[in-house]
Design goal:
Alpha-Beta Plaits; mainly alpha; binds iron/sulfur cluster
């Protein structure tokens, strides 16, 4: 599930910088959560960080976006793969230079 922000939001700004997925942004009148980016903090933290810091407790589960923990983890990996390459990211970890693990390195060339 993703989370959502209700009209009780007082635009205090504290949740937006806490989101590890940059899922929170200012909407027309109050802050909003992009359900395509919210993983409920799965992959980053044990608890939703925005809920931890919100002073008016206005960030419930979005009833329109029901996802299992596995789906949230898959969303986390999709977001990581789509993010600009950073040290330690899944995208950069996938890059293994070709030919680096070859044992013997040419010592077994045929003799003439
Ligand atoms: Fe961002 Fe986590 Fe809040 Fe979702 S639950 S909006 S990922 S801080
Ligand atoms: Fe709104 Fe809560 Fe975020 Fe403050 S922390 S901007 S009240 S949703």
């Amino acid at each position: 599930m993703a989370l959502t922000i209700t009209e009780e939001c007082i635009n205090c700004d504290v949740c937006e910088p806490e989101c590890p997925n940059q899922a929170i942004s200012m909407g027309d009148t109050i802050y909003v959560i992009d359900p395509n980016k919210c993983t409920e903090c799965v992959g980053h933290f044990d608890e939703p960080q925005c809920v931890q810091v919100c002073p008016v407790e206005c960030i419930p589960v979005n009833p329109d976006v029901i996802e299992s923990k596995d789906q949230l983890m898959a969303k986390y990996f999709r977001l990581q793969a789509a993010a600009p390459s950073q040290p330690g990211s899944a995208a950069s970890a996938a890059k293994v230079p070709a030919g680096t693990a070859l044992p013997g390195g040419g010592a077994n060339a045929p003799e003439v």
